[in-house]
Every structure is written in structure tokens, then in C-alpha cells.
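Query structure, 70 C-alpha cells:
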């Protein structure tokens, strides 16, 4: 991961399809948590589930906001 170019990895819950090679516009709404290493794949999955639960609580408010969606 010794990259010189900035990259972003997105998790799109519910997305079915292939976006590799596509150009996307991404806007950050809020900071979720710092990047960290996980001791196992299971620990990563558990954290993603916690992240999603937190974001779903905020989801209704976000969907009713004036954020422009593409």
C-alpha cells in the first residue's frame, strides 16, 4: 500500500453491480471513525455492522436533508 495517489474505498450497502473503472462523485457528510487494522476478518465484519447500525440511525434525517444526490 505504498501508494503515491490518494484513494478512497467505499462501502455501498445494498448496491448490486460493478463500479470498477467508473468515475464517481463522492461527498463526505461526516467523519465516522479513524482507519485501523483489525485482528481478524470477523472483527472487521463486526465493526462494519456497528458502523452501518450507527449510520442507519442517522439515515432518515440525512434522506430528508437538502443534500444534493447524483
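Result returned for the query:
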Amino acid at each position: 500500500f505504498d501508494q503515491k495517489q490518494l484513494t478512497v474505498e467505499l462501502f455501498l450497502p445494498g448496491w448490486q453491480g460493478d463500479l470498477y473503472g467508473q468515475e464517481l462523485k463522492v461527498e463526505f457528510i461526516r467523519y465516522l471513525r479513524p482507519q485501523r487494522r483489525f485482528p481478524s476478518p470477523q472483527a472487521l465484519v463486526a465493526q462494519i455492522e456497528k458502523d452501518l447500525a450507527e449510520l442507519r440511525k442517522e439515515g432518515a434525517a440525512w434522506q430528508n436533508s437538502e443534500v444534493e444526490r447524483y
